[in-house]
Amino acid sequence: MFEDVLTRIGAHFARSEPRRTVRELLLGLLAPMERKNGWWLAEHAGHAGPDRMQRLLRTAVWDTDAVARDLRAFVVEHLGHRDGILVADETGYLKKGV
């Protein structure tokens, strides 16, 4: 199913490098890691630093609206129900320290 999502949204990335990086980013976001910041996601993907992840989110050419539409359509196709709703709750993590 993961590869189906990537196939669907992959056409909205102008170059192969961002397509590869978005795959690595999504795998990192789905991984059981304590933190999900640029450094941790980059390390999980085997990168030396967060530059590629940051470049994807900051300057890479991709159609964010089309990706959002395709992801929504995918979720509706696979999880949708006539009477259902989707609630996204990003609760975050408690900060350590004072």
UniProtKB/TrEMBL annotation:
Record-annotated Transposase IS701-like DDE domain positions: 11-97
Name of the protein: Transposase
Domain of life: Bacteria
One Pfam family from the record: DDE_5
Annotated source species: Catellatospora aurea
InterPro entries named among the record's database cross-references: IS701-like_DDE_dom
